[in-house]
Design a protein that fits this description.
About 50% of the residues lie in helices and about 10% in strands. The chain is α/β, with parallel strands linked by helices. The chain has 2 domains: about 5-55 and about 335-345, 5,6-Dimethylbenzimidazole Phosphoribosyltransferase, Chain: A, domain 1 (Orthogonal Bundle), CATH 1.10.1610.10; about 60-330, Rossmann fold. It has a 6-stranded parallel sheet, with helices on both faces. Helix 11 links the parallel strand 5 and strand 6 (about 290). Helix 2 packs across helix 3 (about 35-50), helix 8 packs antiparallel against helix 9 and helix 11 (about 270-280) runs parallel beside helix 12. The longest helix has 20 residues, at about 145-165. It is globular, with a radius of gyration of 20 Å. The termini are far apart. It binds nicotinate mononucleotide (NCN) and 5,6-dimethylbenzimidazole. Nicotinate mononucleotide binds near residues 77, 176, 180, 182 and 267. Belongs to the CobT family. It catalyses: 5,6-dimethylbenzimidazole + nicotinate beta-D-ribonucleotide = alpha-ribazole 5'-phosphate + nicotinate + H(+). Pfam families: DBI_PRT (PF02277). Catalyzes the synthesis of alpha-ribazole-5'-phosphate from nicotinate mononucleotide (NAMN) and 5,6-dimethylbenzimidazole (DMB).
Amino acid sequence: MDVFEAAKLVVGIDTKSFEEAKARQLTLTKPPYALGALEDVAAQICGIASLVPARTPSRGALAIFAGDHGVLEEGISPWPMEVTAQMVGNFLSGGAAANVLAKRTSTKVLVVDVGVALDLVPTEGLIIQKVAKGTSNLAKGAAMTREQAAKAIQVGFDVACDLVLDGHDILIAGDMGIGNTTPSAAIVAFMVGAPVASVTGYGTGISSELFEKKVAIIESAVSRTASSIDRSDVLGVLSSIGGFEHGATVGFIIGAAFSKVPLVLDGVISNSSALLARELSPLSLQYCFAGHASREVGAKVANSALGMEPLLNLDLALGEGSGALLALGLIQGATDLLADMATFDQAGVTEK
Ligand SMILES: O=C(O)c1ccc[n+]([C@@H]2O[C@H](COP(=O)([O-])O)[C@@H](O)[C@H]2O)c1
Ligand SMILES: Cc1cc2nc[nH]c2cc1C
């Protein structure tokens, strides 16, 4: 199905089930709202499932969208481009942080090559849907064409729909792309209208000198974009300052919402992508959870612009879906609590 058509068909979560879940929380053996944000999470899961109590999501799937970035030639990351492809190899052989965390929650790990510069060898667990061999350098002009942006979004949407058809009941957004904190900060600055220096982070670890350079590059790309593109023009924004991972993540979010399954956002790449998904489908955000507050400052700015409270704040700056995978355990726990705790009546505990 065409993702842009699907985006228009996304419906909000079931508010009746959401409210019913909130009411059920009050009957459980605990002071009102003693489980805090976990109560909100469980109600949101019930709203998504249209069922109270909802079944606990237990068949998670992590999609790690991988792509390269032409802007790397400006020296905005200390790591060379080939690390993107090398880390894809690491994901496929099970040695990355994401693999370790996914194992704990029996989450399937899928890598989607949406724009890695090097050719990858077809392997089990790898989907090759290369839009191009890396983006163009956004410091010099548009990062991609509008057609490429649309293709990246479609890839992410198709991956989400296929995973749900395969029986996965919660989706996790992950990313891998050396240099991708630069387009992420550009997207946040442009979409939120915040000063670039206030949304730019240190990525994989850059010097303060390099940080100044990163900010200057993003400032110039954002002002180039602002002169001709409107915030509601998602293909315009992506083509001007985005990455293929961002495009795919936009589609992944819409795919989860269209398929009515929850999705856990990870760090600054998925948070910035959610700002774009909101333009195509505002209701799609009702299916999203902010897994964590990344160390990357733009992630925090994006989450607050989205009105989302991150579940964890662990100073993570890894990507890959690592923070979202950790949050999955909390989402599962929250859903279990609503379903399995005794009520005051059942336990013979006096209500206040
Ligand atoms: O998830 C995040 O918020 C995050 C923060 C900093 C770095 N990363 C990861 O590090 C890479 C991008 O960092 P950089 O410095 O090369 O732009 C990319 O592979 C991301 O997955 C991810
Ligand atoms: C080693 C390494 C692992 C990563 N995982 C996600 N982004 C990454 C960036 C680097 C450099």
